[in-house]
Design a protein that fits this description.
Helix content is 42%, strand content 15%. By secondary structure, it is α/β, with parallel strands linked by helices. It has a single domain, classed as TIM Barrel, CATH 3.20.20.70. The two termini are 13 Å apart. Bound molecules: 1,3-dihydroxyacetonephosphate. The site of 1,3-dihydroxyacetonephosphate has 14 residues, from strand 8.
Length: 257
């Protein structure tokens, strides 16, 4: 189980550090056992990363970025490299979020190149896939997600379950307050699991497949109870430490004792 927060373009630096401190305090108060079986991560804006990595250094909350450039270094004004991320304390990076695909024109080929680059620096990519409402209504959701997996993962090696994380984020559920039903999520997660297994064999059985899209503390339990929903990529609710940790508690409750 993994609960990861995607803060998107929210919080200024003092606000971000305060949120990270509140998370650290919440994890410490809950005690070692509370989240022993759940991995936690936050993906704040770039400029917060190293400060937040310091704040979270003594608690089991990993730090990830929301994007990375596919090239090693060079004349790419405004971009951030994988080496910059690892040196700032990141272990994870979100790639192919629908907001980047839609607003910044990222293609599957771009996403694939970012995955390869992230992996070459030891960063775990959190690959986002998901369909629009029109694609779902037309009965094309599964085909869209399969195509996104194919475009992003063709030729990529996954040797262990820790080499990759996938997040299924139906675009119609992001920031809308409308979540996929647990059944809709499970159906797509099972499809993703099958696709990964066909591609990578045994390690795919344990690759985390997160659900994202209006996951909140009141609906997280039903989603996380599904066998192939092994975590969440949480947007809005990750901006409040208590809400984020309540979702993590629901994840912990799903792990067999
Ligand atoms: P919300 O939880 O705000 O819907 O965002 C989901 C998301 O896009 C996470 O990457």
């Amino acid at each position: 189980m993994l609960i990861a927060g995607n803060w998107k373009m929210n919080t200024d630096l003092p606000g971000g550090l305060a949120l990270a401190r509140a998370l650290a305090a919440g994890v410490q108060e809950a005690g070692e056992e509370a989240f022993a079986d759940v991995d936690l991560a936050v993906c704040p804006p770039y400029v917060h990363l190293s400060g937040i990595a310091d704040v979270l250094a003594d608690v089991p909350v990993a730090v990830g970025a929301q994007n990375v450039h596919a090239e090693e270094e060079g004349a790419y004004t405004g971009e951030i490299s994988a080496a910059m991320l690892t040196s700032a304390g990141c272990t994870h990076v979100i790639v192919g979020h629908s907001e980047r695909r839609e607003a910044f024109g990222e293609t599957d080929a771009d996403v694939r190149a970012k995955i390869v680059q992230a992996r070459s620096h030891g960063l775990v990519p959190i690959l986002c896939v998901g369909e629009t409402i029109e694609q779902r209504r037309a009965g094309n959701a599964a085909a869209v997600v399969r195509r996104q997996l194919d475009g992003a993962l063709d030729g990529v090696d996954v040797d262990t379950a820790d080499d990759l994380i996938v997040a299924y984020e139906p675009i119609w559920a992001i920031g809308t307050g409308e979540t996929a039903t647990p059944e809709q999520a499970q159906e797509m997660h099972a499809l993703i699991r099958r696709d990964l297994t066909d591609r990578f064999g045994d390690p795919a059985a344990d690759v985390e497949i997160l659900y994202g899209g209006s996951m909140k503390r009141h609906n997280a339990a039903g989603l996380l109870r599904q066998p192939d929903v092994t975590g969440g990529l949480v947007g809005g609710a990750s901006l409040t430490a208590d809400h984020f940790l309540d979702i993590a508690r629901h994840a912990a409750a799903q792990v067999p004792a």
